[in-house]
Amino acid sequence: MTSTPCIQKTSDRPPPVWVEVDAAAYRHNLRALDRVLQSGTLRMAVIKANAYGHGARLIAPLAVAEGVDYLGVHSLEEFAEISDLTGATPVCLLGPTLPDDAPAVVASGAEVTVSDLRVAAALADAARAQDRRVALHVKAETGTHRQGILPDEIPEWGCFFEQHPAMRFRGLHTHYANIEDTTDHTIARQQLARLRDIQRRFAEAGLEPDLVHSACSAAAIVMEQTHGNLVRLGIASYGLWPSRETFLSTLLSHRMGPELVPALSWKTRIAQIKDVPDGEYVGYGCTFRTTRAMRLAVLPVGYYDGYDRHLSGRGHVLVHGRRAPIVGRVCMNMTMVDVTDIPEADLGAEVILIGRSGSESVSADTLAALCGTINYEIVTRIGRHLPRVLRGSRS
Asked: How far is CA 143 from the centre of its chain?
């Protein structure tokens, strides 16, 4: 397994392309979100997908130091990457586990999401072989139709827990299908009602989970009735709103939402300056032709690094606090930008792909709009091979 390169302190010579993570911004976001939660609600910091592109090995210690009650990852492989940084904070595997992974999962000590009795049985067998107890979070199907058990399966799960006392019913949870993309939360309310019905049926079978959790970032912000006794804080903890609709929902409810501060900046450096005559083509496919003599900067970043090809001829970067438009197609490892009107642009100069320079900024939301996607995809697709640099104190 390849870990994400992490740098704690920058040298006098920054790498050609890198990501900066603002520790103070991440702490601020967790605290801002905590203020919108009901009193006593536990917090899970979700750090799956390399902490949404921010670098799991940078974010995990920040979250632990901030006193979160859980860490959430997708898989055993993701847990292995940060297992030495979690301390006493429990970790929950939120994604699917396969039966042949059961021995390694049990040995890891992680808590496990389950929605298939065959997987649960494999975990029970592994627990018996290793003389261990395992905390299970049973996922309920309420309308997303991914992981999840149906109400009719509850009697079988009741028998399972009765037959396997080493299996602890730690959590019951679900995930909302349509809480971010709309200001009408009717479907989310229906899903919450289904979750409560499943919880009631488990209680009738003599089973009470320690935790009931359904709230992602959007639900935590706009529907306090979803909080249960644990919320899963993902995209918003990194300072990005789950959607415009989530932000609008807070305005329509006439209450103050959390003030979020993006924790991630993405930077590169000018690798070459080129003077290009009038009438010349730039880049693959001859999609751009100069209409004047132009001065171009070549950037050592491209779609291999996660800088989306849809930004070709549409996006811009920041150089010395000014916008430099992308010309031609974004290449695998390079991108060309127009710096004709930025005379101070020179070899080695810092370039902002995501972040702020002077009074100008480029956000993940801006890039998402240009690419026809969501801010989640923009940040999580930033290449794992790129160094993540922590800015600010861990304390």
From this structure: 22
Contact assessment for residue 267 and residue 20, using Cβ atoms and an 8 Å cutoff: yes
- Taking alpha carbons only, the member of 44, 123, 126, 111 closest to residue 79 is 111
Cα–Cα dist 259/220, whole Å: 14
**Per-residue DSSP letter, 318:** E
Measured CA to CA, the distance from residue 198 to residue 171 in angstroms comes to 12
Same fold, 23-252 and 264-362: no
Say how many C-beta atoms besides its own lie within 10 A of residue 10's C-beta.
Answer: 14
Asked if 264 and 286 touch (Cβ cutoff 8 Å), the reply is no
Query: For residues 137 and 112, what is the distance between their CA atoms, to the nearest angstrom?
Result: 6
Is pTM beyond 0.90? Reply is yes
Give the whole-angstrom CA distance, residue 236 versus residue 238. 5
The answer to whether 120 and 171 are in contact (CB under 8 A) is no
Cα-based distances in Å from 207 to 114, 163, 171, 202, 249:
16, 13, 11, 5, 36
CATH architecture of 23-252: Alpha-Beta Barrel (3.20)
Catalytically active residues, by annotation? 48, 284
- Read off the pLDDT band of 19 (50, 70, 90): very high
> What pLDDT, on the 0 to 100 scale, is given for residue 256?
72
Domain boundaries, the chain: 23-252, 264-362
**The domain defined by 264-362 carries CATH number 2.40.37.10:** yes
pLDDT digit string, tens, across residues 311-368: 999 999 999 999 999 999 999 999 999 999 999 999 999 999 999 999 999 999 999 9
Neighbour count for residue 41 (Cβ, 10 Å): 18
- Joined together, the tokens standing for residue 38 give 């009901």
- What's the pLDDT tens digit per position in 270-321? 999 999 999 999 999 999 999 999 999 999 999 999 999 999 999 999 999 9
* Beta-strand relationship, 167-173 and 134-139: parallel
Rounded Cα–Cα distance for residues 294 and 278 (Å):
7
